[in-house]
């Protein structure tokens, strides 16, 4: 469900503000009925007409993208760096990323035009697990990582309990591979959490997002989610 003015704006007829004007002027019908108040929720099954002409509601689409390092999780960049949308030039719908991955982080990024699901997934209360694998400086040990399972203070706010696994350690290189599962999405969260326990991140990749993983994709590739995957994703949001 989405707000009527947003649906009209998304159909490309006009801006959100002007769409509000069309509604209050009584020029919009939903399933044949004039709607004059703002904020009415409509679904893709509702027939929306402006001045008697039905608008084409964009169908929701969902893409799973393997973001390479060195790409911005944005729609545009004023410094002309590569952005994720550069990879979606062939996709007709106006999709945008669900949350962000840092410029130097690779891995699973979802893109969709479903604003509602996007908001749901990004809200920490829905507890969608995200699994990260980090190469860190130093030899990690369990005791060192334990505080992350209870939550630590970062920028004055406690993080939600996380889960970790030490995947390997390399005495020669003095580095370790650590897997961290979190459900929040604060800025640089994994890097900040690992740094706080004395393990600065050298390389970071997101491997899972709720029920989804990167299987079958190489960096820079994407695929559309199946209907089943979309419903699994929706169900993963508590
Ligand atoms: N945490 C980080 O520090 N960086 C990311 O890109 C994602 C999570």
UniProtKB/TrEMBL annotation:
Alphabetical UniProt keywords: Isomerase, RNA-binding
SUPFAM superfamilies for this protein: Alpha-L RNA-binding motif, Pseudouridine synthase
Domain RNA-binding S4: start-end pairs: 2-59
Enzyme class, first EC level, given as a word: isomerase
Recorded superkingdom: Bacteria
Listed EC numbers: 5.4.99.-
Pfam family for this entry, one: PseudoU_synth_2
Gene3D superfamilies recorded: Alpha-L RNA-binding motif (3.30.70.1560), Pseudouridine synthase I, catalytic domain, N-terminal subdomain (3.30.70.580), RNA-binding S4 domain (3.10.290.10)
Entry similarity comment: Belongs to the pseudouridine synthase RsuA family.
PANTHER family: PSEUDOURIDINE SYNTHASE FAMILY PROTEIN-RELATED, RNA-BINDING S4 DOMAIN-CONTAINING PROTEIN
Entry protein name: Pseudouridine synthase
Species of origin: Enterococcus innesii
């Amino acid at each position: 469900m989405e707000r009527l003015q947003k649906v009209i704006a998304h159909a490309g007829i006009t801006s959100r503000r002007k769409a509000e004007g069309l509604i209050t002027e009584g020029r919009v019908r939903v399933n044949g009925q004039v709607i004059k108040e703002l904020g009415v929720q409509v679904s893709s099954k509702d027939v929306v007409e402006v001045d008697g002409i039905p608008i084409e509601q964009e169908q929701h689409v969902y893409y799973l993208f393997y973001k390479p390092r060195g790409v911005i999780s944005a729609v545009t960049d004023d410094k002309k760096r590569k952005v994720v949308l550069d990879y979606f030039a062939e996709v007709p719908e106006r999709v945008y990323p669900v949350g962000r991955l840092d410029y130097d982080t690779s891995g699973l990024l979802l893109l969709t035009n479903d604003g509602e699901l996007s908001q749901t997934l990004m809200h920490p209360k829905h507890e969608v697990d995200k699994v990260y694998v980090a190469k860190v400086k130093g030899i990690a040990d369990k005791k060192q990582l334990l505080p992350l399972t209870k939550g630590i203070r970062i920028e004055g706010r406690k993080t939600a309990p996380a889960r970790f696994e030490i995947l390997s350690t390399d005495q020669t290189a003095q580095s370790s591979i650590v897997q961290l599962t979190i459900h929040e999405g604060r800025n640089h969260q994994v890097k900040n959490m690992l740094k706080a326990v004395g393990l600065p991140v050298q390389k970071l990749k997101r491997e899972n997002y709720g029920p989804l993983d990167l299987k079958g994709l190489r960096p820079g590739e994407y695929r559309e989610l199946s209907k089943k995957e979309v419903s699994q994703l929706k169900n993963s949001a508590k």
